[in-house]
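Protein chain data
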Amino acid sequence: MNFPTQIESIAGHAVADLAQQFGTPTYVYDAAKIVERINDLSQFDVTRYAQKAASNLAILDLVRRHGVLVDSVSAGEIRRALAAGFKAGSDEPPQIVYTADIFDREALDLVVEHNIPVNCGSPDMIDQLGERVSDRGITLRINPGFGHGHSQKTNTGGEQSKHGIWHEQLDNCLDRATRNGLTITGLHMHIGSGTDLEHLSQVCGAMEKAAHIVGPTLTSISAGGGLPTPYREGDQRVDIAAYFDLWDATRNRLATAFGNPISLEIEPGRYLAAESGSLIAEIRAVKQMGKNLYYLLDAGFNDLARPILYGSYHPMAVCPATEPGRLRPEQEVIVGGPLCESGDIFTQEEGGFVCNRPLPKASVGDYLVIGCTGAYGSVMGSNYNSKPLAPEVLLLDGKAHQIRRRQTFEEMIGAEIVPEVEKE
C-alpha cells in the first residue's frame, strides 16, 4: 500500500476538479483498479462478486463485462443483478446465486420465479425451498466451526457467528434435501473478511472433509471470500497463486475421488472493490481542543461507517485547494465529521479509541481524500442527521462518469407520510 499523505489527483483526474464538478462529499472509483483485481483471480474457474461490497449498477456492469458472475444476499440484490444485465436461471455456472442465512418472503418468491440457484446458510432454507420447488440443485454454506477476520464483527465462522450451516448438521441437511427432492451440488465456506493465508488454508481441509460427506453429487466448491486488502503502509498482499494452489489441490483430489470434474469458485467482494474507491471531502473546520488538533470534514459516518463500526483504518491524504505542488509540513491531527455523535471520527481504532494521524497542515477549503473506500463505503450510507446520500463517480477510459447523483432533500423525505388528523 503506497498512499501519500498529500495528493492532487486520482487516476489522472485532479481532486479539486472532481470536487468542484460533483461537490463534496463524493465517492470516486478507479475502474482500472477493479479490473486489475479481477485479473488477479483469473486462475479460478469462476469469480463470483459479492456485490454487497459495492453494488452500484455501473460497477456491477463493469465486473460483468469482465467475466465475473455475481452473488446476491437479498431480494434487492437479485433485482440489482438483473438490472445490471446478469441472466437468471440455472446455467452452469449460474450467473446469479442467492446466498443468505434466511429467505424473507420476497427473496423466496424471486428465486422461485426466476429459477435462481440458492446457497443455503440455514437448514430451514432447504425445507422452505422444498415446499415450493423440487428437482433442483442447491449448494450449502458450511460453518466449519472456526473463523477469523480483521474484526470480531467480520468473523463469520465458529459458534459466535450466525452464518452458515454448522458442520455437524451436514448429515441432517442431506436428509432434508432428499426428502424435498433437492440435490446438493456445491459447498461454500467463508470464515471472515480480512483473514490471513494461514487461516484461509485451514478452510481447504474442512471443505474436503465436508465434501466427502456429501459425495459425488458435488460439481462445485467455493473458497468463499475474505481475501485481505492492504490498507496500511507495510500491509502484505495475499499470495493469490499460493492460495489457488491450495484450493486446486483440494479440488483435484475431490474430482479424482468422485470421478467427475469439480468447478472451483472464489467469491471476492472487498478484494475487488476496496482499493478502487476514494471519498473526497472538504475540510470545513480546523480546531484545537486542548492538546488535540481536529480536521472536521463535510463527510461523516453517514457516508463512511467502517471506522465507527470496526475501528477500520483508512489511508488519508490532504489535497490543497491553493498552491498546488507545494509540500506542506505534517502535524498530528484527529479527523472527524459533522454529525452530532462523539463517534463520528475517522481516525479511531476498534473499541472507539480516538487516535492521531500525521497529515499535512491544512486550512478550511482544502480537501481530504479517504482512500480504500470502494468496499462497504457508499453501500452503508445513511440519512442520519438528514444528510443526503453522496454521489458516486466512476473513472473509466479517461473520463469521470457520474454513476449516482447526490440525493435531493425531496427524495430523502419522499417516502414519509404525515397522517391527517382532525383539528381539535
